[in-house]
Amino acid sequence: MSFLGFGRPQPTSAEKIAAVENELKVIAEMHSRMLKVCSAKCIDKTYREGELSKGEAVCLDRCSAKFFEAHTAISEQLQKEGAARGFGAGM
Question: Which positions fall inside the Tim10-like domain (predicted)?
């Protein structure tokens, strides 16, 4: 029985590795969705220049910041709800 785990067994190394791998998968999926959404919204499809225009760069910056902020808020809420139901405690 662990004081920090409130009586729950501590996760094994394999469980910790699985948790980190899952977190990396979530981050990679979020990045992929953000890239797809923000590129479609901000980048001119005619590709007239080799570099991003100032407007495109600003749009991408704002879009990615908002996307990440929303993702973070949703993740925090899901963690709170999971903790209230007793999921994920002790990791």
Answer: 18-80
> For the segment 2-22, what is each residue's pLDDT rounded down to a tens digit?
455 565 667 788 888 998 999
Cα 61 to Cα 50: distance, rounded to the nearest angstrom: 18
Would you kindly state where each structural domain of the chain is located, as residue ranges? 13-84
Contact 90, 19 (CB under 8 A): no
For residues 52 and 63, what is the distance between their CA atoms, to the nearest angstrom?
A: 15
CATH 1.10.287.810, domain 13-84, yes or no: yes
7: left (phi over 0), alpha (psi -120 to 50) or beta: left
